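Hi, here's the filled form for the chain we discussed.

Project: internal
Contact: R.S.
Residues: 190
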Amino acid sequence: MGRKEQREKNIQFLTKVTDGIMWWIGSIPSLIIHSLVFLTAFLLPLFGLVEFDKMLLVLTTVLSLEAIYLAIFIQMSVNRSHEHIEDLKEDVTEIQEDIEDIQEDIEEISEDIDEISGDIDEIQEDIEDIAEDEDEDDHNERAKNVMLKSHVSSNKSDIKALKEMISKLQNQLEELKKEGEDEEEKSTEE
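And the returned structure, exactly as it came back:
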């Protein structure tokens, strides 16, 4: 393990210790113990075990040392909180930048969607125009087909009628030929 890693490990250990002490100082057990220490300190001169001046001197010295360490612990906690707040500020700034980027992307996407929507509308209009043209072409084709079919059917009926007329005419011609032959025969007989 290198010096840097050992140093980091030691700092992490001390950070945990100071966090534990700060937590303990702000707890109810700490309040009870401090209260008992102060009560005991003031009771010692009453029972004649220690002089009052010496007790105050020791008590103020201990309290001063405790206050110094508490101030150090508090400042360490404030520094860590400040670092944490700065990290959060950086994170918030990055998040705000990301949000701005996302908003710009959304605006671009919205513009693209509007363009695509316009293109779709144009395509739809083109499709409708083509459909109308096809409908007209289909209608025209159908009309032509209907007309052709009607012409064909009327032509068929005309042809049929003509065939009937031709066959009648042929029959009449044959009758006329027969009559002509009959008359010839009669005239030759006569």
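Let me know if anything looks off before we file it.
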